[in-house]
Amino acid sequence: MATGMNRKDLLDIEDLSLEEIQFILDNATPFKDLFTRSVKKVPTLRGKTVLNLFYEPSTRTRTSFEIAAKRLSADVQNFAVSTSSVVKGESIQDTIDTLMAMKVDYIVVRHGSSGVPKMIADYAGASVINAGDGFHAHPTQALLDAYTMREVYPELTGRKVLIMGDILHSRVARSVARCFHMLGIEVGMFGPGTLIPQDLPPFITRFDHYDDAWDWAPDVMYLLRVQNERMKDHFFPSTREYHQIYGIHRKRFAAVRERGTWIMHPGPVNRGVEVTDEVMSYERSLINQQVENGIAVRMAILYALKPQTEAREGSA
Amino acid sequence: MSRQLFHGGTLASDGSQADILVEDGVIQRMAPGLTADAHTEEVDCRGRLIIPGLYDMLVHLREPGREDRETIETGSLAALHGGITGILAMPNTDPPIDSGSMVQFVLTLAGERAEIPVDTAGCITRGRLGEEMAEIGDMTAAGAVMLTDDGSSVANPNMLLRAMEYARNFDMLIGSHCATPALDLHGVMNLGSMSYRLGLPGIPATSEEICIERDLQLARLAGCRIHIQQVTTARGCEIIRRYKNEGLPVTAEVSPHHLLFSEEDLCNYDTSLKMYPPLRTPADCEALLAALIDGTIDAIASDHAPHTIFDKQMDFNHAPFGILGLETALLSLHDRLVRPGKLPWDVLVRAYSENPRRILNKPPVEIREGVDAEFVVFDPEGETEIHQDYLLSLSRNTPFLGQTLAGNIEQVVLP
Hints:
The complex is a heterodimer of chains A (316) and B (415).
Chain A lengths: L17 H17 L14 E6 L4 H13 L3 E4 L10 H14 L3 E6 L4 H8 L3 E7 L5 H14 L7 E5 L6 H12 L3 E5 L13 E4 L2 H6 L4 E4 L5 H4 L6 H8 L3 H10 L2 E3 L22 H18 L12
Parallel strand pairs in A: 1-2, 1-3, 3-4, 5-6, 5-8, 6-7, 8-9
Helix pairs in contact in A: 1-5, 1-11, 2-11, 5-6, 5-11
Chain B lengths: L2 E9 L5 E7 L2 E6 L9 E4 L4 E4 L1 E6 L12 H10 L2 E6 L10 H14 L4 E5 L13 H7 L3 E2 L9 H11 L6 E4 L3 H4 L4 E2 L2 H6 L3 E2 L1 H18 L3 E4 L4 H12 L4 E5 L1 H5 L21 H13 L4 E2 L8 H4 L16 H10 L6 H15 L15 E11 L18 E10 L2
Parallel strand pairs in B: 1-4, 1-5, 6-7, 7-8, 8-9, 10-13, 11-12, 13-14, 14-15
Antiparallel strand pairs in B: 1-2, 2-3, 5-16, 16-17
């Protein structure tokens, strides 16, 4: 098992070493084992306060963090942010001051602008966990996805994952690509030319045609949600065309099922857009496992980070 | 003391030694080996460089409209503090400088309150909206020295062409802020590998390059003089070089920041480096410096853009574009380019003192016998700490805050 982590915040996969990634993944397993017991709690974070600061609405991720924190016996509070006001620095700066005055131990932040969790982390003594900022990063998603991969493939080196969809606007794609690459997985990307950035990191293989991506024989197809608003911004002409060319439609799904390719998706799924309905009952869909693992991995992250909120009590 | 002898200094423009005797604001004598008499104050300039007063041709003074960020007065003080003895104010104020009366307003205020001469540009179009021509004749008569919609480009090529053709009668210089708004969209930094990494929407270099090409073509068609403001791309430099080789009356400028910083410096989402046009790649920095040295780029202009601390504390997506420049331009150029030998002093003097005035048809500021004394005494061995209290600007949005730069502006002599 890897050695411990000495880090206050988790802002980006890019900040983590391979050892730290493995430390978190290794520690998720004992937490996951708890879930089948009747008492799913451990006292690890008793007396600590975890604050959820979600500027973007998100029931899934927020609930996942909430359950994770509560299973560690922490007190959880949701900080109600006015989502009706135009997002301005005023909110963030005032909020940072307020949070610091409240002296919470952990702050889980999701925000529509890249870099905001870092702004908070630079000021607050609390441990800041990035639950998704703009297009930038979603490190906890990447880690839970890596954990899920490990359950299927104990040996990850040389495995292939094809990320499909709107890469341009996806913090999940960026973090997953980076995390998987660090674990020795080969990463490919496929999507409309408008939604794949020109300047991808060199380790990513870019496919312009589905058939080429299929011939590459990915072990896992990682599907991204496609937002309909992108249509209005001229990124693709229609969801119908998107589904036919860039989605896993019925015919493609038959081949997927036959080959036994695994399907992953960060959720929520746009049925009929990135994937056909049938995938929801596919035996090799890892989507539900991702959700379950999300709680375990987030518990491991809360366990591993070190807030700087206490007055010095002897050794650090 | 009305008589001073600056002795032992070196002229930055050509490296020669000269003692300078100034009386009543005029250089009476200039030669090596002068001595001071009892009525003359002696200023020791040994080891110092004597630089002609600089001229900054892209400055945002924020008055009228945003006097919380800067005023004509504080901007002029900041300029002087940075060794700059003349500035060109941009017209994107609130209300904008798009009429003769607005030009008069700024120049009158400047005459009363500014420490140094302040020129003003006028808008090309009314309200900078790009739809109707502003009263170019009236603004010229009132004293505007350049026309620009700076902050915006003129999106409609026909509008720009008409303005260029019209401006010809007044021999008015058109300043071009080169960007293609439809390509910029919500971009906040250069589009590239860094914008991918940081997860921020990007502004493609192509947006500037297309517009530079377009504006130079239009200027050729209209037969007017054109000045490309704030060049940031290597390809942009190539385009300008090509048109200059054809003999077109085009000039161009670059800001110190685009020479010194690249998109890689944005890794911490530091809004004190968020500017428009944005920082580009390291290769662009090199190309810009080469273009400055070979004369493709004629001038250095800071694009001094004050913003309140509050505004710049916003997240990177929402923070306003722009950083200070007047007080740090000379020092930072010295610290990062001149001292390491990458930018010769004579190029800096040409680009930051001679050419801007020449482009605007202003009389040159020289250091020779018989002219007004207007020069900077600069100590290359000194150091300047850019702390909160050092800055005379009302704003503090500079990436150099808290840093120490090599060099010290000891004195600025004005006529």
